[in-house]
Amino acid sequence: MPKALCLISLVASILIVVLFLADAAMGFAGMQDVAPMRSASLLMDIVFVVLGSAMIFMSWKTYREQR
After folding, report:
1. Which strand (E) or helix (H) includes residue 45?
2. Residue 5 three-state SS
3. Any stretches that span the bilayer, and where are they (predicted)?
4. Exposed, middle or buried, 24 (CB in 10 Å: 0-12/13-18/19+)?
5. Which of 34, 35, 42, 66 is most buried per CB count within 10 Å?
6. CB 53 within 8 A of CB 19
7. Cα–Cα distance for residue pair 17/67, rounded to 1 Å
8. Is 53 helix (H, G, I), strand (E, B) or coil?
9. What does the pLDDT look like over 50-67, one tens digit per residue?
10. Cβ-count burial of 14 within 10 angstroms (0-12 exposed, 13-18 middle, 19+ buried)?
C-alpha cells in the first residue's frame, strides 16, 4: 500500500507542475485566453511549480527506498 501512495503522490505532483507550468508559459506568450487558469498570478505559478517539483523529488526518493 505505501508504494501505491507514493505513486499516486508522484502522479498528482507531475500533473500540478504541468498545469502551472503551462499556465505560466501561456501567460508569457500572450495567450491568456487559452491558459488553464487565465494566467491569474505569475507568483502563484512559480510557487506551485517549485513546490510540485519538491514533492516529485520526495515522492520518488520515498518510492525508491521501499524497494
Report:
1. helix 42-65
2. helix
3. 40-60
4. buried
5. 35
6. no
7. 26
8. helix
9. 999 999 999 999 999 987
10. middle
Residue labelled with grid coordinates 505559478: 45
Which grid cell sits at 24?
Answer: 505560466
In the numeric block, the cell 515522492 is attached to 59
Please name the amino acid found at residue 16.
Answer: I
Residue type, 63: Y
Contact 55, 9 (CB under 8 A): yes
